[in-house]
Fold each of these.
Amino acid sequence: MAGNFLISQDWEPVVIRKKALTAVARKDKKAVNATRRSGAEIETIRKSIAGTNKAASSGTSLNTKKLAKDTKNLAHEKVPTKLKKSIMQAQMDKKLTQTQLAQMINEKPQIIQEYESGKAILNQ
């Protein structure tokens, strides 16, 4: 032996346990009864709306009530007919297609089509 080493034994007990119970297992009747028998305290809390579906059966939701109260017209302002006709007339006078007109004003052809059909939403 090369040196004097002090060798000692560790005689502390080793406890091997099962893994802790999950939340579902702790709520099981058997687990609750076993806990009662062992004398541990058990706290039970009843939730006020447990087991009911009051939100679904309330009739109208909060958003529905807000919409019902709102009396404003929520539609977007569309292109006036006079503007539609003037764009189409100017395009025909210059003998341009929608694509050519769009290139001249640096806009997409789809925007010109929407203005002429009256579906465009005006940006002010």
Amino acid sequence: MIRRYGFEDRGVVGAVPVMAFLLCNMDRVNMSIAILPMSAEFSWSPTTVGLIQPSFFCGYLLTQIAGGIWADTVGGKSVLAFGVVWWSIATVLIPVAAKIGLPFLLVRAFMGIGEVVAMPAMINILSKWVLVAERSRSLALVYSAMYRGLVTGLAFSPFLIQKFGWLSIFFSFGSLGTIWFAEWLNKAHSTPLEDPELRPQEKKLFVTKCVSKEPVKTIPWSLILSKPPVWALIVCLTSVTIGGHLFF
């Protein structure tokens, strides 16, 4: 797939894009731990802390649909690379902004802008690289990486803060994005047809078994919103999101 896999492993997403989602949630969750020593150092009031935490999602709201359109237009590889680099830079800038008085809430919002394009970019990549019959397993692998990122970030952040101070989690987590970016540029291709190392039998399989269409020019919103399963998914995901962010 994104990395060189054997023919029998053609439907498995490679480790490189999955690592992007691990980093995504590591960078997202570290503020939940760092906010305690930061608020003490900068004498932030509970109101300020309450504004800092949701500012991430203000940026997150802005580019979700745009990220999907962009991925369909220029390819998932470029969009995912942009997202990782953008949110990694924003992660590194968080302590800088807090120290020198830059618009701190704006930096957090910028981080949300970068992270939100990751999912539509990955969906675009999966639609090109994974056989229809194997997509559920691939999505499960991707989503599990997101939750592993939450666990990893929450587990390592207190240790880093205790040993090296709260700045360390932003600099260390953010710098991992540069390592990922270098590997991604070397290994990834938006579609199988762009991969010069893809073997002929694999290329034939992707062409015949993957559903790869041209980007949709007009989205049939009325038709989509008229389907009960769509509303069931909306209600389900809304409930999970509200519950997850309120209580965890």
Amino acid sequence: VRSFADRFVAEGPERLNVLVANAGTFNPVYTQTQDEWEVMLQVNYLSIALLSILLLPHLLRSATCDDPSRLVLVSSLGHYLVEPMLTDSQNWDHILGAISAEKFGVSGQCRASRYNLSKMLQVAFVRELGARLPSPTPLVITAVNPGLCHSSLQRELDKYCLLRMVLGFVKWLLRARTSEMGSRNLVYAALATNAQDLHGRYMSSCEVVEECDFLLSAKGQAFSERLWRETIEVLSKVDDRVSQIVSTYLPAR
């Protein structure tokens, strides 16, 4: 991520009007990265948050009064399913550390829940980042559900024949979309003319819809604020530009 951001600064275009952050993975086995984070947490959430913040100045500089820049994070309908995992989250010493720990989930069901949770973190990140920008905003930030699609997201399941067959049946049963059909939701969020109405919101089927009940609750709002602080703290240790960008462009609420 840092290398990409450096390369964009050195070789990229002068303007950055749209950033669609669509990195994602699903791993059926607990796996740690070399940075000692659970792999889905790092790929699906931390890396996207880092890239979004490192490129934030470029998105803001490219915006005009009539044409705000766009930041689109690819989330999931699965984020509605995570509340049972967060019943005692207010007692966690460290949200990201608790979620990353191997003991946080060991069953196959929990592996899917980890993926859903990483997508809920994206929605929370969009809300918190959006709330720290001025109104009307020069940068419209949106979390988008592309729907259940045929894609390479489950590429790690190739080693698990039974899981792959079950998932294939579920996709057939639910009439999964092609990747091209799912991408239309992302394109809409990136180009829609009613930009200010989309800011800081969650979208599905090209419409703004409510986030999960947990994020709308007082407990969820407190969770989101803690998550934001922890995320900035963690990312600032990875790249010192993060704290500089936050202090310059994102004043505390």
Amino acid sequence: MTVAVLTVSYSSPLSPSTKIKTPPHPNLNSNSSKIQHFRVPKITCSSITTQSQSAKQDLLNLISDQDRGLKTQKDPEKRDEIVKAIDAMAIMGRNTVTTGGSLSATWRLLWTTENEQLFIIEKAYLFGTQAGDVLQVIDVDKKTLNNVTTFPPDGVFFVRSSIEIASSQRVNFKFTSAVLRGKNWEIPLPPFGQGWFETVYLDDEIRVVKDIRDDYLVVERASYNWKE
């Protein structure tokens, strides 16, 4: 995502020691009058792509060894560092629309502070399995969101939600149903909860989110589309 800003540069700036002399009684009708010419500021268009890419890489580096957030739970200093990096990304995404068609995708979890999600990831072994990809599947046109936790090879737990676009960056959601599914079985669960989330940064690769509970989420576009 490239955003252009205007910068002003002067090809011949005056130094602090420069003195401008003007005659005490200028004669505007005299042929000898000298006309001083001042250079017009040159307006150029520059890109902040480099700056945003640097902030993005800083964030990705910070979360790369955090086991999707499990390690961060025990390291408050690391969490604060990551949140500061997220705040920097939010500045990059300020005044952008992140609730349009580009929000529709299968998003794969890289890092989160959501305790419920981290609990499922951590305790999956109690059910004789381990968590695979954790996904958010969003369809803006159909107004749907599925939160999905996979348990390879055949297990999956997903929560269906309806969504409404509330602003340029905020989406309201309401859970409608939940399902725990194995290879040859399925257990429906009652829906629970509603709220909102804000996508504070969005590009062709990642999405950075803050929600109603001040939890954070960093996801990447998955290389596949998940379907029920």
